[in-house]
Amino acid sequence: MRNLLLISLLALLFSGCTSMPDRFADVPPQVLMVEASPDKVYLVTQQAFRRLDFKVTRSSISRVEAVSAIHTSETFGDSRQLVAKVGIHEAGPGKSEVELTVTEEVSSQSMGGTHRQPLRENGFFGLYFAMLQQVLQEEAGHVSAEKN
Predict the structure, then answer these.
(1) φ, ψ dihedrals at 147, nearest 5°
(2) Could you report how far apart the first and last alpha carbons of the chain are, in Å?
(3) Is residue 21 scored above 50 in pLDDT?
(4) How many CA atoms lie within 13 A of 73 on its CB side?
(5) Are 97 and 88 in contact (CB under 8 A)?
(6) pLDDT exceeding 90 applies to what percent of the chain?
(7) Of 29, 64, 116, 140, which residue has the fewest beta carbons closer than 10 angstroms?
(8) Which residues fall within 8 angstroms of residue 99, CB to CB, at 6 or more apart?
(9) Beta strand 71-73 with 96-108: parallel, antiparallel or unpaired?
């Protein structure tokens, strides 16, 4: 009886291991195609982050990283922060591909430190892409107003 219980527990333990690679597998970025040059998208990317109260931590012409404010929960005894990374690639004349990845960093004393989790789905993806497009439209309107 004792051996049967031990075998059952081991079977449960090892059956969970097959799903673990999915949790830690690379999460592909979400992608948006825009009608703007990579140089323009680079500038607008930073503006969009600032409007969403993110702080730009690193930037180069093809990559921008930003972090949200740290949100602390006394109820759960943890703090959370989103880390967003944008890759900018030329996708043809006057077009760019914007790749967005978002990672949640959680610091918790009860969990024993800090852990990072790439997010597959999060409302921030849609929010950021909408803000990026809004800033692009504003910039396009500003440029056409200057020409007139």
Answers:
(1) -70, -30
(2) 87
(3) no
(4) 12
(5) yes
(6) 57
(7) 116
(8) 29, 30, 31, 86, 87, 88, 89
(9) unpaired
